[in-house]
Write a structure and sequence with these properties.
Elements (H helix, E strand, L loop, with lengths): L2 H19 L1 E8 L5 E9 L12 E8 L4 E6 L11 E9 L6 E10 L3 H12 L4 E8 L2 E10 L4 H14 L8 H14 L2
Antiparallel strand pairs: 1-2, 2-3, 3-4, 4-8, 5-6, 6-7, 7-8
Helix pairs in contact: 1-3, 3-4
């Protein structure tokens, strides 16, 4: 996906699906970086049918120089991270501003905690390859739900927004049925 198509897809998301999904605002702009070519921010309203706790959610997206998209949203879960957990170290260079910074993340790939496995399984079920990251930002560790890959059009972007926002409501296993209902209802709203 090139920069203009990415920006068009993000803006089109608000125009086509904003009311149905409770998207209150979107921002999209091109960047001059070699790593980050464009940025998209999607703000989900607290009144959205995709949100359970009446708090707004923000999905941040980056079009990378490779043409792939990186999307991230906060994931309010507490993992009992076992020292034997396995993960993939990821470094992301932010070249939007000077000086360039590098954020480090750990993509949890194999762990005894069932929540990351359930989340990845939910993503696969709905056609989205998701990852659970522990991100170190400004000296603080946060859990993020992440997507790395390509998208074809605004409809596949809408699908990604529904799946990621719905899963970001999951605090523990008790929320699983509610998250599934939100996802199914959201996907019906975009068809």
């Amino acid at each position: 996906m090139d920069t203009s198509r990415f920006i068009e897809a993000v803006l089109d998301l608000h125009n086509r699906y904003g009311k149905r999904l409770g998207i209150s605002d979107v921002y999209a702009y091109s960047a001059r970086g070699r790593v980050i070519r464009a940025v998209g921010t999607i703000i989900i309203s607290p009144n959205s049918p995709l949100v359970t706790n009446n708090a707004p959610k923000t999905l941040s997206m980056y079009l990378l120089g490779s043409g792939n998209i990186l999307a991230m949203i906060d994931l309010p879960i507490n993992l009992n991270v076992d020292p034997r957990c396995q993960g993939e170290r990821i470094e992301i260079t932010n070249d939007l501003y000077k000086p360039h910074t590098t954020a480090a993340a750990l993509n949890i790939t194999n762990c005894n905690d069932e929540i990351p496995n359930i989340i990845r399984g939910l993503g696969r079920k709905f056609g989205v390859r998701l990852e659970v990251w522990i991100v170190n930002e400004l000296g603080m560790e946060n859990m993020k739900l992440a997507f790395r890959g390509s998208l074809g059009d605004s409809r596949s972007l809408a699908r990604l927004v529904v799946v990621m926002t719905a899963i970001s409501n999951m605090r523990n296993m008790d929320d699983l049925n509610r998250v599934l209902k939100i996802m199914n209802d959201g996907l019906r709203a975009i068809t």
